[in-house]
């Protein structure tokens, strides 16, 4: 079957009456089959209790005004409230919050299905913001200016119609806008191609174009740093998912290239430029090298240089981190005067604080003091929640594990650390253990995975999940949903750290890129086989779940390794690799998967594309596909067509399409609870029988 022979193309018609009717019929079948029993009702109620719990940690963000901002959803506020408070109040068990915007009240007042998508606050004034709201949870948003003092939208303020927009403040009267300006203004990926500087009180179409990318780029973008003394505007084009071309935009409108590798990620903070490498970089004229010869920095390294000197051509580069075969850079974050570095050692977190020398002082710029970050527990996964570099050197940390609810701590570089909040326990973990094992993939690669469960429950129902793409790592985390709905009922839970992710840096990702994609699938299959070999479960009692790119993983497991699983669940999945680049944002992922219009690329894509490899005669485990009509990232046509093909060829498949929810397949906690209860009920029915 090729693109022109696809008998189910009509299911890509998003709101067409035939396609919509087909989805309604499948929903009715699935709900009748799965939602009528007591177990489903109990699952949904327990999951909803987790999602709406009043004693959850209200994770804050800092915006430079010494206040703690939080967006909160619970039973009384299903769409959520945006609020803020002081540190002293936040320390209290029940803080008094200043509610800035009530999305439920706004939706009722305006008759819109508004879903919160964030806010960009004006710095340094902090009296205005640009609020992004979507209809039904899609990526496309409406942007409206909001007055934080009057707690009201600005009547004649900056406003953008629904689009996949990118906005940033320059000052109180100017913003940089990348949005849909009409025909020719979008890339083939459906994102903005141009950036304009929009002055308050003028019509948007008359805004000055400050940068334009190419139609085949992923997008054009802009950002502005208002730090006093370091005010800078950056513009650029995302060439593909991993490569970009960036410039400093001078006040005179000139563009100065940020001359780093196109696949590097970088940021500027005050005096410093920090560069993270995805591929090796050979640099001539590096300061301190005899004769100024070339130096090659490895993929996965993190470098620092004085910003102004680098743009002027100097190459005073300092290596802040070098990876090895077990350790990789995860991310970094700045306080005002320090750099916090997060790394992974065999998928376990490590955090350090680096203090730079003084740029311009003889011999000092290359000397960075390094020490462990205070407040990081040894045996839990810790992540940096936020810093406030406009204000000082404070930082927020969250530490958790598969069995340990999160603890939120406030630290000060060089100062004390205090515990601010502890999350509640949603399930009894006393009998559970957390173990890390390594499976051996088809090519001999050691693939780590985490196993959580009762060590005495051999051969029991087991849920295996993974992602394996876009350099995104799968990390230890506490899930009340999985705990209540799966672990507490006797199931084991497994997270596989397969290639394609970022667990071991760029090399781990590249090992499963494009034509090497099957390495990720071989890794996942190796983990599944290892679980059986260790006696943890059996193929009939092993289920797998994945979402988005992990949904593609689920589709490949179904069609290539069906004998390994007793049930398969795919959420918002990518499944048709012949047409993915022509559906919504799909063209932006060709750097990850390949170009189906290139015969050489299609040859390997065709080999694993789940939609093209459904075998009528091969036994498949029962399958559940979940998607959303409002997913404007991965088209619901993927799941629709796969369900139709499986049905046509006699396989057992359940299908559920939420009418809203975007790429998360759920727009509120009631919908999230329903989707997860549906997922777990499906898995228990097919995996939870007698051993």
Automatic annotation (TrEMBL):
A Pfam match: Peptidase_S9
Peptidase S9A N-terminal domain mapped to chain residues: 5-221
InterPro entries: AB_hydrolase_fold, Pept_S9A_N, Peptidase_S9_cat, Peptidase_S9A, Prolyl_oligopep/macrocyclase
GO molecular function, one term: serine-type endopeptidase activity
Cellular component, GO, one term: cytosol
Signal peptide: none
Keywords annotated in UniProt: Hydrolase, Protease, Serine protease
One BP annotation, GO: proteolysis
Residues in Peptidase S9 prolyl oligopeptidase catalytic domain copies: 487-688
Record flagged with keyword Hydrolase: yes
PANTHER family given in the database record: PROLYL ENDOPEPTIDASE (PTHR42881:SF13)
Name the record gives this protein: Prolyl oligopeptidase
Source organism of this protein record: Micromonospora haikouensis
């Amino acid at each position: 079957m090729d693109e022109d022979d696809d008998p189910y193309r009509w299911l890509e018609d998003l709101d067409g009456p035939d396609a919509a009717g087909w989805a309604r019929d499948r929903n009715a079948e699935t709900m009748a089959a799965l939602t009528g029993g007591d177990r489903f009702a109990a699952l949904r109620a327990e999951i909803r209790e987790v999602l709406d719990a009043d004693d959850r940690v209200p994770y804050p963000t800092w915006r430079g005004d010494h206040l703690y901002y939080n967006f909160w959803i619970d039973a009384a506020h299903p769409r959520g409230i945006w609020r803020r408070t002081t540190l002293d109040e936040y320390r209290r068990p029940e803080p008094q919050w200043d509610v800035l915007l009530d999305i439920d009240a706004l939706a009722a007042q305006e008759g819109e299905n508004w879903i919160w998508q964030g806010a960009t606050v004006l710095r340094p004034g902090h009296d205005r913001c640009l609020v992004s709201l979507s209809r039904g949870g899609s990526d496309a948003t409406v942007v409206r200016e909001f007055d934080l003092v009057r707690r009201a939208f600005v009547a004649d303020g900056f406003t953008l119609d629904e689009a996949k927009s990118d906005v940033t403040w320059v000052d109180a009267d100017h913003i940089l806008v990348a949005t849909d300006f009409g025909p020719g203004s979008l890339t083939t990926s459906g994102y903005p191609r141009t950036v304009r500087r929009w002055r308050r009180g003028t019509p948007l179409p008359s805004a000055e174009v400050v940068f334009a990318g190419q139609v085949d780029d992923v997008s054009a973008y802009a950002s502005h740093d208002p730090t006093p003394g370091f005010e800078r505007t950056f513009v650029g084009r995302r060439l593909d998912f991993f490569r970009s071309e960036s410039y400093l935009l001078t006040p005179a409108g000139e563009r100065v290239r940020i001359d780093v590798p196109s696949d590097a990620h970088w940021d500027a903070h005050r005096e410093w430029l920090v560069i993270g490498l995805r591929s090796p970089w050979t640099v001539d004229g590096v300061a301190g090298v005899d004769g100024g010869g070339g130096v090659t920095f490895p993929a996965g390294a993190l470098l620092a240089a004085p910003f102004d000197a680098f743009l002027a051509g100097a190459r005073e580069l300092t290596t802040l981190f070098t990876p090895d075969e077990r350790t990789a850079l995860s991310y970094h974050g700045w306080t005002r005067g320090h750099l916090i570095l997060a790394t992974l050692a065999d998928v376990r977190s490590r955090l350090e604080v680096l203090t730079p020398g003084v740029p311009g002082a003889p011999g000092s710029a290359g000397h960075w003091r390094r020490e462990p970050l205070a407040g990081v527990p040894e045996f839990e996964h810790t992540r940096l929640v936020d810093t406030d570099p406009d204000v000082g050197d404070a930082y927020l940390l969250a530490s958790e594990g598969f069995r340990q609810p999160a603890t939120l701590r406030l630290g000060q570089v060089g100062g004390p650390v205090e515990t601010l909040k502890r999350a509640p326990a949603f399930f009894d973990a006393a009998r559970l253990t957390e173990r890390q094992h390594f499976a051996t993939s088809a090519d001999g690669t050691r693939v780590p995975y985490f196993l959580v469960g009762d060590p005495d429950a051999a051969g029991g129902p087991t849920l295996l999940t993974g992602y394996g793409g876009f350099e995104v790592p799968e990390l230890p985390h506490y899930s009340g949903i999985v705990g209540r709905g799966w672990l507490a009922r006797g199931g084991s839970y497994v997270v596989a750290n397969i290639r394609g992710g970022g667990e071991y840096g760029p090399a781990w990702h590249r090992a499963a890129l494009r034509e090497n994609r099957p390495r990720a699938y071989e890794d996942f299959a190796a983990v599944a086989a290892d679980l059986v070999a260790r006696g943890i479960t059996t193929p009939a009692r092993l289920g797998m779940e994945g979402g988005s790119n992990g949904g593609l993983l689920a589709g490949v497991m179904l069609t290539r390794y069906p004998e390994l699983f007793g049930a398969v669940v795919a959420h918002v999945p990518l499944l048709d690799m012949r047409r993915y680049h022509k559906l919504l944002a799909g063209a932006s992922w060709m750097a990850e998967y390949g170009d189906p219009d290139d015969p050489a690329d299609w040859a390997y894509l065709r080999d694993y594309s789940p939609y093209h490899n459904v075998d009528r005669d091969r036994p498949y485990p029962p399958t559940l596909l979940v998607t959303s009509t409002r997913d404007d990232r991965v088209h619901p046509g993927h799941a629709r067509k796969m369900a139709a093909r499986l049905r046509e060829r006699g396989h057992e498949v359940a299908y559920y399409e939420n009418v809203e929810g975007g790429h998360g397949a759920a727009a509120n906690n009631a919908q999230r609870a329903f989707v997860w209860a549906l997922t777990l009920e499906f898995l228990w029915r097919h995996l939870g029988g007698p051993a």
